[in-house]
What we know:
The chain is an all-alpha fold. The chain has a domain at 18-96. 50% of the residues lie in helices and 0% in strands. It is built from three helices and no strands. The longest helix is centred in the N-terminal third of the chain and has 26 residues, at 24-49.
Amino acid sequence: MSDRDDILADRLNVEPTIFKGCSSSELGIIVGVATLVWLPVSLLLAGLMGAVTMGFGLAGVGVVGTVIAMAGLFQRLKRGRPDGYYQQHASIWLADHGLRRSPFIRRGGAWDIGRTRYATLPQRD
């Protein structure tokens, strides 16, 4: 196999980074949430000032600013850490605050198999 064929997208273990350390799915989530927040707020503010169509431009600027700021935040969170670190960190934080069950075993101490006696092994002939 030549050197050029060694770098193939189907051999990647994780999504490649697109912008400031974020993958395309992370950027899509950031854009979606920013749009859901900025569009109604900016349309309301622009409507109060009497120029509703200006709200779309304000929403666009807000979404772009939010994407840049959140991508920078994710870049700092992910720096030097393994893949999926912040997802696990967020899941543990939600479990600590009682908002979700933890998908991880977080118990410390001795473990027991639950048996009170030893099982007898069948005899072989």
